């Protein structure tokens, strides 16, 4: 597991903990951003897009 996928896993865990910890509706956007970004990093394993020529 490379470093980017570990960062993605950490983001997913932080998003889930935030979602379970707070009852405020304003935190939903932040938890969605953390979980969405984390899942994306878990699947791709990279920060930048590959260039195709």
How would you describe this protein?
By secondary structure, the chain is mainly α. Helix content is 68%, strand content 0%. Helix 1 (3-21) packs antiparallel against helix 2.
Task: Describe the protein's topology.
Elements: H1 3-21, H2 28-44
Short synopsis of the structure:
The chain has helices at residues 3-21, 28-44.
What labels describe this entry?
53 residues; 2 helices; single chain
Please outline the major beta sheet. none
Which range best describes the helical content: under 10%, 10-25%, 25-40%, 40-55%, 55-70% or over 70%?
Answer: 55-70%
β-strand number: 0
Shape: elongated
H/E element sequence: HH
Mean pLDDT: 84
- Detail the poorly predicted runs: none
What share of residues are in beta strands?
A: under 5%
DSSP helix count? Answer: 2
Distance between the termini: 29 Å
Find the structural class using helix and strand composition. Answer: mainly alpha
